[in-house]
Amino acid sequence: MNTNAISDALYTADQTKALGLFLRQRKPPEIAEQVGVATRTIQKWISQFDWKTLRDDAPVELMLRQRIAYLMWVDQKLECQERELKMLLEQHYKNQKSEQRSRPAGYHDGDKKRGRKSNKVKNDISGITKEMLDEYREKTFFAYQKEIHQHKQDDDINEIRFYLKSRQIGFSFYFAWEAFEDAVLSGDNQVFISASKKQAYIFKNYIRRFALELADVDLKGKDDIELSNGANLIFASTNVATSQGFNGHMYWDEVFWIPRFGDLDDYAGGMSIQAQYRTTYISTPSTMAHEAYPKWSGKKEQNIDISHKALKDGALGPDYIFRQMITVDDAIAKGGDKLFNMEKLKRKYPIKEVFDNLLRCKFLDDSASFFSLKSLLACKTDTENWLDVDHSKAKPVGNAEVLVGYDPRGGGSGEGSDDAGLVVSLKPKTKGGVFRAIEKLRLKGSSYEQQAETIRAITEKYNVVHLAIDTGGVGSAVAELVRKFYPSLLELNYSPEVKRMMAYKAREIINNGRFLFDEDWDDLVHSFLMIRQQTTERTNKVTFISNRSKIGSHADLAWAAMHVMCWEPIDINADSDTSVAFF
Fold this sequence. Notes:
Distance between the termini: 107 Å
Structural class: alpha/beta
Number of helices: 22
Number of strands: 17
Strand order of the largest sheet: 3-4-2-5-6-1-8-7
Radius of gyration: 29 Å
Strand content: 5-15%
Helix content: 25-40%
C-alpha cells in the first residue's frame, strides 16, 4: 500500500466554509457575504456538488432551530429577515404546543418520546430537481420562449431586460415558469408587479399549477408565497406606498398600461437594486405618450434603434438595457404556428392600425386620439373595494339604479361593422358624482333578436333607469325590438352635433376622474384611444370617427360608455334641475 499517495481535496477552503454555513440553514446571499464571494458562485456550488441532498435529510425541527439561531444572531436585520424570524418563532411555538397536547397523562419531558413526529413542511418543493425542471421546460415551451430563458442565463445581458410583445403569445405563462424555476433552484425572491392585482394573480395561478404538476404540492399563500427553501414569491399591487419593503428579481407586467409608472419605477424599482437581482419589463404597446416609453426608447442622445429589424433577435443598448420585440409573426416562425391562424387574425382585426397595435408591437399615436391615455389610466380602480357590488348574486347591485349604453354598430363609420358594445354603470349618487362602470359586454355577429335579448337580460338583472341606443343605420332594428320591453328607451340618432357633444361631455367626465372602471379593462382604454376628431367633407363640421380606414370598428365599448355618460346634463352646475338634451 502506498501511504504517500495524497488524494486531491474534495473542496477548497471557501467551499468547505460555505458548505458548513449551508448546512446551518444559511441562504446563498448570507453565505456569500460571510465567505466573500458572489451569490451566483454559492448557487453554482450548491448545484454542482448537490449540497441540497445533504440538507434534505435533516429533521425539520433541527433546521427550524438552526435558522432561528442564525437570525437571532444578526444584529442589523433586514425587514424580510424580521418577518422570517417572526414566522419561524410562531411555527416553533406551535410545534411545541402540538407536542405537549399529543403527550399522554404522566408523560414528562425527560421520558423517551413516543411515536413518529410529522415531517410535513409547508410549500415543500424539495422534491423538485433541476433535471425535472429542465425536462418540463424542454417539452413545454416554444423556441422563442426558450430563447428568453437563454437571455436569463446570460449575465452579460440579464441585468435589465425589456420585452415588447404581441398579445396572447404565452409570455405570462413563460415568465411565471422562469421565476418559479429560479426560486426553486436558487432560493431567491421573485417579485411581480402588474397593471392590476388580478393580472398579478395570473402569474400566481400558473406557479401553483407548476408546483402541482411537478411535485403534487399545493402552494399556499395570498400575496406572498414562501417556498420551503426560503424563497418568497411576491405579488404586489401598483400602489407605490405598498410596493416597497421586499427585494428580489422583479417582473413588471404590462408596464405600458400601468398608471403613474414613473413614480412606481422610481420607488418600487429599488426592490431589485442589489447586485444579484434582475429586472424584467414585459408589455404590449399602448401609446408613445405613456410614462414607460422613454425607458423603452432610451435617451435621445443615445440614438437607440428600436425598430423591429434591430430588435427582432434582441439587442443590448448603451444604457445596458436588453430589448427585444416579439410580434405574432415572430412567434409563429418560432413554433407558435400551433397557436395562431394568420387569416383568422386578419378577419378578426381588419383595421391595420388595430392589428399592428395588438399583434405587431406598434404604438398608437396618442396625439391623434381625442382622449388622453393618462386620464384614462387614472380612471382605473380596484373594483373589489366596491362592497355594494357582488357579481356572484343574481342582482349584483340589488335595487340600485343603473345606466346602460348600447352601441349596436360598435361606433364604426364604414360598411361591414358588426361589433356591438354594452356598458352598465351605477348612477352617480350626487350631482357631479362618479360613474362606476360595473359590467361590459361585446357582441360580434349577433342577430337583431339576439342583441335585443341580451339587453332584455340586462334590464332584468339591474334596475335600469337610463338605456340609450344609437338608432342610426342598423341600430334602428335593435331599438324597435328593445322598445317593446323598455318603452322609455333613449334613441340617439347620430349626427356631427350629437357625436361632438357626447365626446366633449365624456372627455370632461374622464379628465375629472369621474368615470371609474375595473383595472383589468384595458380593452375599454384601447376603445377610447381609437376615437379621432375630424371634419366632415361636405359641411366642414367637426365630428368623430373610430378609425382612419373606416372599415369596421374597435371603439364599440367607448361609444357605449358615452351613451351612459350622456345621461348627465351638459351643464351640471346650473341651478335649475331641468335637463338639457342635445339629441
